[in-house]
Structures are given as C-alpha cells and as structure tokens.
Write a structure and sequence with these properties.
Layout lengths: L2 E5 L2 E3 L5 E8 L8 E6 L6 E6 L5 E3 L7 E6 L4 E6 L8 E7 L17 E5 L2
Parallel strand pairs: 2-10
Antiparallel strand pairs: 1-3, 3-8, 4-5, 4-9, 5-6, 7-8, 9-10
Length: 121
C-alpha cells in the first residue's frame, strides 16, 4: 500500500524558515518523481515544486529562490526547506507522487494527508 505522511508544519513568523518532511512507503521511491503541493484557505491546490529522479528540480515562480526540495532515497523521504516565509505561504502542504503539475493531477497520483504551515507574526 502506498503511504505518504508529511510532518514539520507549524507556526512561523514572516521571514522565518521551516523544513517539512514526507515519509513514504509502498512504492519504489528512488524511481518516482515527487512533488510538493499546497492549498491556502479558500484557494485551489497549487503545485509548487517537483523533483525528478535524476536530480532535476522545477519550482513554481511563487516559491523559486525561497524553497528547496530534496530527497533521501535511502530513507524514502522527501523534504522541503522553506525560507523567507511570507504570510501568503500559509497553507496545508502535501507531498505527492508525480513530478509535474500534470502528473500530480492524474488519478494514479497519491498524496499524504498534509501538514499545516501558518506564517503569522
């Protein structure tokens, strides 16, 4: 069974940093592209970054230069380091299988339950 579980969310002040993690199981993590998504209150879900299996990464303009995705294939874990956080980064953050906004929209994509990030100060 495919399982993904995010952790590391919380309350942070504007300008601060936070690192999210996504523990996975049930699929060959090292050979699967992965993404982080987020959904702000009252907004549609937004793809923000994808990790290709050979090291390439793609970022949405809204987070480029501030967020960094990384993966530990040995531990089957995906990370998202977020810095220079802004109030409009407040959202529930999800990890998902698939490396692009298109792939995460497919029925075969799986995502975790999400972790809340609140930027307020």
């Amino acid at each position: 069974e495919v399982q993904l579980e995010e952790s590391g969310g919380g309350l942070v002040q504007p300008g601060g940093s936070l690192t999210l993690s996504c523990a996975t199981s049930g699929f060959p993590f090292a050979t699967v592209g992965m993404s982080w998504l987020r959904q702000a209150p009252g907004q549609e879900i937004e793809w923000i970054v994808g990790s290709f299996i050979h090291g390439r990464t793609d970022y949405a303009p809204s987070v480029k230069g501030r967020f960094t995705i990384s993966r530990d294939n040995d531990k089957k874990t995906l990370h998202l380091h977020m810095s220079s956080l802004r109030t409009d980064d407040t959202a529930v953050y999800y990890c998902a299988t698939g490396k692009t906004s298109y792939e995460v929209s497919l029925p075969a994509s799986r995502r975790g339950p999400g972790t809340q990030v609140t930027v307020s100060g």
